[in-house]
Specification:
25% strand; globular; 3 helices; single chain; alpha+beta
């Protein structure tokens, strides 16, 4: 029998350790939470991505009374970017979440479906997407979705 250890590399930074460009992207994700549609969970998630031309696109969670019909913030942003700007690479993605008490203290991570979509976008564009997970007590910076999904499904 062989034992395999899988680990991921995540940087934890304070707000003042981020560049202005990184702060701007995270601020866009935080702002996107305010237009999320979450009448059932009351859990508002925003995502903002930067395209290689420097423009920022946002997405947010969209719930539905028939739960499987909703969509996460990350996929909303990625699908919009890939449908509107298929020739531009996604270089960074920031995610923020809040509830009735405000923004979460600890960053949330993308769900498995979002991780798989992020990974496939990276594979399609042949370039990594830097990921920022926002929390009031610190921001996680991750070099690629491969760090979040080490046992990936690929064809």
């Amino acid at each position: 029998m062989e034992h395999i250890t899988i680990s991921c590399d995540i940087e934890r930074l304070q707000w003042d350790e981020l560049s202005k460009e990184e702060q701007q992207l995270i601020d866009s994700a935080k702002e996107a939470t305010y237009s999320a549609y979450a009448p059932y969970s009351h859990f508002f998630v925003g995502a903002a991505l930067r395209l290689q031309d420097g423009s920022i696109m946002i997405g947010n969670n969209q719930e539905n009374a028939s739960y499987p019909c909703g969509l996460c913030a990350e996929r909303t942003a990625l699908f919009a970017a890939n449908s509107q700007y298929p020739h531009l690479q996604v270089t960074a993605l920031a995610i923020a979440a809040r509830n009735a008490e405000g923004f979460l203290k600890t960053p949330i991570t993308p769900c498995g479906s979002c991780r798989q979509v992020m990974l496939e976008v990276e594979h399609r564009q042949k370039a990594h997407i830097k990921i920022y997970l926002y929390g009031e007590n610190g921001v996680y910076r991750i070099a690629s979705s491969e760090e979040l999904l080490p046992l990936q499904f690929t064809l």
